[in-house]
Amino acid sequence: MKKLLFVVLFLLMSVVPVDALDLLMFSSSKCSYCQDFLREVVPEYHKTKYHKVLPLKIIDIDNPPPQWILNAFSSEGLYPIRVTPTFVAWDNREIIRTEGYVSKEDFYKVMDAFIGHFEVPQMQKKPTIEIPKQEGSHGRH
After folding, report:
1. What would the 3-class secondary structure string for the chain be?
2. What pLDDT, in 10s, does the model give residues 42-65?
3. Residues near 66 by beta carbon (within 8 Å), at least 6 away in sequence
4. Least C-beta-crowded within 10 Å: which of 13, 25, 37, 48?
5. Is the C-alpha dihedral spanning 5, 127, 41, 102 positive or negative?
6. Known Gene3D superfamilies for this protein (predicted)?
């Protein structure tokens, strides 16, 4: 019985507490895919089931970053942002990320995968979810 209790406690402690998460979007005004996301997703995002689990916070990389972002980079709680848009599930550190934006439908598929990730113990390495490429397309970054 003690072993079972220990295993249950371990699993509970290793699962990300969903109510503590944010979805950070690293965006640039020079990024056409960011602008597509802002136009196609943002106006309705707060009404979706995803907003309840991952409230969206947009970080404009064209401006100096807030101190907490600088601290996160220096403590390796956040990996470098190489492309925009980059979406990061955040709980005082990076949990999981995806890069790029293709369409609203594909974005919500990725959000389903993000939310599914929170139902299992956290992974030790930096996971990345790839957005599927549309036929005849080279993706959108």
Report:
1. CHHHHHHHHHHHHHCCCHHHCEEEEEECCCCHHHHHHHHHCHHHHCCCHHHHHCCEEEEECCCCCCHHHHHHHHCCCCCCCCCCCEEEEECCCEEEEEECCCCHHHHHHHHHHHHHHCCCCCCCCCCEECCCCCCCCCCCC
2. 999 999 999 988 999 999 999 998
3. 59
4. 13
5. negative
6. Glutaredoxin
Could you tell me the two tokens for 129? Answer: 């979810």
The two three-digit tokens of residue 46, written as one number: 């707060």
The pTM score is 0.70
- What's the rounded Cα separation, in Å, for the pair 104 and 106? 6
| pLDDT at residue number 11 | 33
pLDDT score of 128: 52
Q: Which tokens belong to 124?
A: 């030790």
CA distance 25 to 37: 10
Which CATH superfamily is 16-129 part of? Glutaredoxin (3.40.30.10)
Checking phi first, is residue 68 left (phi over 0); if not, alpha (psi -120 to 50) or beta?
Answer: alpha
